[in-house]
Amino acid sequence: MTRLLGILFTLFFLEKGLAQTPDSLRISSPNGLLTWSIVLRDGPESPQSPVYEITYRNKPLIQPSRLGLGGNPAGSRPFNWDKNLRIVSATKRSQQSSWKPVWGERSEIPDRYNELIVSLRNGPGSGGTMQIIARAYDEGVAFRYFFPEDLRMQILEVGQEMTFFNLPPKTKALYTDHAQGSYVERPVENWTKAAQMPLTLKLDNGTWACITQAEQSSYPLVRLKTAGPDQLVSQLAGEITEASPFASSWRVVLAADRPGDLLEHNYLIQNLNPPNAIKDVSWIKPGRVMREVTLSTTGAKNLVDFAVEQHIDYIHFDAGWYGHEYEIASDATTVNVDPRRNPKGDLDLPEAIRYAKSKGKKVILYVNHRALERQLDTLLPLYESWGVAGIKYGFVHTGSHHWTVWLHDAIRKAAKHHLILDIHDEYSPTGFSRTYPNLLTQEGVRGNEEWPDATHNTVLPFTRYIAGAADYTFCFNQPRLTNTKGHQLALPVIYFSPLQYLYWYGKPADFPDRQEIEFWKDLPTVWEETKVLDGTPGQFVSVARRKGNDWFVGTITNTEARKIDLPLTFLEPGKRYTLELYEDDGTGKVRKQTRTVTAKDRLTANLLPSGGQAVILKRN
Predict the structure, then answer these.
(1) Three-state DSSP class for 265?
(2) Domain boundaries, the chain
(3) How far, in Å, are 14, 147, 152 from residue 120 at the CA level?
(4) For the sheet containing 540-547, what is the strand order?
(5) In angstroms, what CA-CA distances link 371 with 148, 332, 366, 367, 588?
(6) 204 pLDDT tier (thresholds 50, 70, 90)
(7) Which class is 287-526 in CATH?
(8) Cα angle, residue 144 at apex, residues 211 and 81 outer, rounded to 5°
(9) Which of 89, 250, 478, 610 is 20 to 30 A from residue 12's alpha carbon, by CA?
(10) Distance (Å) of CA 583 to CA 25, 44, 358, 460, 611
(11) Where is the Glycosyl-hydrolase 97 catalytic domain (predicted)?
(12) Are 413 and 372 in contact (CB under 8 A)?
């Protein structure tokens, strides 16, 4: 791993005046394709306002757009950091490094950027300093607001943002207004609700971009609302009251020539988070999970036996094991099965945990936010003493400053008790798993619980999955599915999650034909290399991932039949591979084919409407 090269040069400017040169307030990516720059400009109502712009391949990506924060009108310390500002210093540095994640979509992640830190002050006598920190990577650009510790301005009260994104004309967005929503392609104007990030954009010149956020662990959720044609502005989910030093979340703008590069480069979000804070990570084990739906001892033991046969790593006890999850009287320290889930109430959880452990399997427990908020500090050491491996946090509050801080503290606390986590419902990642890799996955996605169609599934890799891992709750052999079995088999390759919940609504008895689910039996959940072979949002996608010497390929189409021809040039040259192909046979079943291939061959997928194909390439 290379080391930080350090500071290349520093430019200091006096408060009384700024002797700017064209490059003093501009940075470019290491490959020179992306630039970020800032100036102070005068407007009718915003004199001396900071304005930034981003270019990609010398073309506008984000046209000149205002920056700034506004004070909370109801606060005791009103202020505005969007006008009447003076630039007092600017500092530049570069970094060339890489790091190895505990788990991920690749075994090593590059972290190369050029950084600019601009310090500003507002109005004579107001005191305090705000910094705008920007980094230009080859993959995209990121910037944030930072308030260094300053005894003249210890308390910050922020009520709004004036962070604008002025887009080139005719830009189209893949829009949804919440993390578990469906997506619609629409022009950037007249949105009745703000958009959830990541927000993927297609510019009229063919460039693809994505606006998202990173390190949103102590800052309110940010959405993007329209402020005019082709103009977006940040919308905070509530005010902030905080002491300095304090930083906003990063705003990230990825840029690419093809949409698949946005997903391949999503590690940029992790780069913008602090390094791993857990010294001993040996207990953090990704794997496949199946939910125990009977909440009974017999059902649990049957599931453990199925898990042994199908190489499933975890069994999961979902809502109802300690009573109705919404009732305040339900006590998550005791087993008290909700009679609506199992009228007999015959769940011996200690025995189920013991039996699972005897077979080499681990247990995850679901706990609703109502119990977490009352009992968290009791539950964590208790579950550790029970031999539980992890918790799924359910229906947690998201958005506000208070609940954002609470939730990320709850992740840190779980790590102290060696508990892995899955956070469900509206929580969407911003890279915190780099710092606390016990957070293996989260929902924040419209998955199989809501039975989305194939077109929706082809959009997700280019939108939600740019943010990071998502628990999609995969189903198989369920009558409500509108997509084929080949489509379902391919999804866990395309959709990254270190904890892959398989057969979500199923029981072992629902899978009499074991060959149909053979592909999932030894499917890895973390990877050493990831490539998006081809795809267009709303049409189709093909993703290849490597674990050791073997490659796994998942390909799906929308609701239309499609033939896709894929080169196998990602394979190691000169090596032979055994290709095992699982596809729809046209009768509702799965057909398996086997042959030998090399990097010179091609893979053809003849996909049915709403269909898919799953492939293993084992190096001989």
Answers:
(1) coil
(2) 6-271, 287-526, 540-619
(3) 11, 10, 15
(4) 529-536, 540-547, 550-557, 612-619, 577-584, 590-597
(5) 37, 6, 10, 7, 43
(6) very high
(7) alpha beta
(8) 115
(9) 250
(10) 54, 62, 36, 21, 8
(11) 295-445
(12) no
Torsion of CA 184, 189, 193, 197, to 10 degrees: 60
Six-digit token pair at 504?
């979500």
Enter the DSSP assignment of 196. P
3-state secondary structure of 547: strand
Q: Residue-wise over 9-43: b if at least 16 C-beta within 10 A, else e?
A: eeeebeeeebeeeeebbbbbbbeeebbbbbebeee
**How far, in Å, CA of 497 to CA of 215, rounded?**
19
The pair of structure tokens assigned to 376 is 């968290």
Q: How far apart are CA 497 and CA 467, in angstroms?
A: 12
Angle at 550 between CA 545 and CA 552, to 5 degrees: 40
**Residue 517 dihedral angles phi and psi, to the nearest 5°:** -105, 15
Q: Residue 340 pLDDT > 60, yes or no?
A: yes
State the pairing for strand pair 314-317/287-292.
parallel
pLDDT at 16 over 60: no
Which sign does the torsion angle of CA 128, 134, 135, 141 carry? positive
What are the C-alpha distances in Å from 479 to residues 134, 561, 589?
50, 21, 13
User: With contact defined as beta carbons under 8 Å apart, do 82 and 120 qualify?
Assistant: no
CA distance linking residue 408 with residue 206, whole number of Å: 38
Coil, helix or strand at residue 383: helix
Amino acid at the residue 52: Y
What burial class does residue 97 get, using C-beta atoms within 10 Å of its C-beta: 0-12 exposed, 13-18 middle, 19+ buried? middle
Single-letter amino acid code for the residue at 211: I
Q: Provide the 3-class DSSP secondary structure of residue 312.
A: coil
Name 402's Cβ contacts closer than 8 Å, sequence gap at least 6.
Answer: 238
Average pLDDT value for residue range 450-467: 98
pLDDT of 157 reads 87
Residues 6+ apart with CB under 8 A from 512: none
Q: Which residue has the higher pLDDT, 205 or 123?
A: 205
Could you say which architecture CATH assigns to the domain 6-271? Distorted Sandwich (2.70)
**Distance, CA of 482 to chain centre:** 26
Burial (CB < 10 A; 0-12, 13-18, 19+), residue 264, is middle
Are the C-beta atoms of 183 and 176 separated by less than 8 Å?
A: yes
Could you tell me if 475 and 291 are in contact, meaning their C-beta atoms sit under 8 angstroms apart? no
> What residues have CB less than 8 Å from 212, skipping those under 6 apart?
197, 198, 199, 252, 254, 269, 430, 466, 467
HSE, CB side, 13 Å, CA atoms: give it for residue 235.
Answer: 14
- Cis bond upstream, residue 381 (ω within 30): no
> How high is the pLDDT of residue 128?
81
